[in-house]
């Protein structure tokens, strides 16, 4: 009977050791999985950041290209205002003189 109890005790100890070893292996697998998941998240973030920067750069370039004709038109209009033709100046002076004369 003592031998049977001893064998039962050995089996229990072996079972506990096996459970402990399995738990340790499971924890190691989980740690490895977590490390892989963190690395994958980092890769996805980096890829997403690069895509976002590419999209933003493309949008900026398109916006600048769309604004370039407007800038040129505005610059041309500004030059016309700064340097009016002689005829336009004469017409403006005549209109101003008439306005002043009629106001008197």
Short description:
The chain is mainly alpha-helical. It has helices at 2-82, 86-103.
Can you describe what's shown?
Helices cover 95% and strands 0% of the residues. The protein has 104 residues and is mostly helical. The longest helix is centred in the middle third of the chain and has 81 residues, at 2-82. The chain is rod-shaped. 0% of the residues are buried.
Gyration radius, in Å: 43 Å
Number of strands: 0
Topology as H/E string? HH
Quickly count the domains. 1
Work out the strand percent.
under 5%
- Can you give the helix content as a percent range? over 70%
Mean pLDDT: 88
Main sheet properties: none
Shape designation? rod-shaped
Distance between the first and last residues' Cα? 136 Å
Low-confidence segments, ≥5 residues, pLDDT <50? none
Please give the count of helices. Answer: 2
Assign the structural class, choosing from mainly alpha, mainly beta, alpha/beta, alpha+beta, or little secondary structure: mainly alpha
């Amino acid at each position: 009977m003592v031998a049977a109890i001893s064998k039962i005790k050995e089996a229990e100890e072996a079972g506990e050791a096996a459970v402990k070893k399995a738990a340790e292996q499971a924890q190691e697998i989980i740690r490895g999985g977590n490390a892989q998941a963190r690395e994958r998240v980092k890769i996805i973030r980096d890829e997403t950041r690069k895509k976002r920067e590419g999209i933003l750069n493309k949008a900026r370039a398109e916006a600048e290209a769309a604004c370039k004709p407007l800038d040129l038109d505005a610059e041309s209009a500004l030059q016309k205002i700064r340097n009016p033709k002689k005829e336009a100046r004469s017409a403006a002076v005549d209109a101003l003189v008439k306005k002043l004369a009629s106001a008197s």
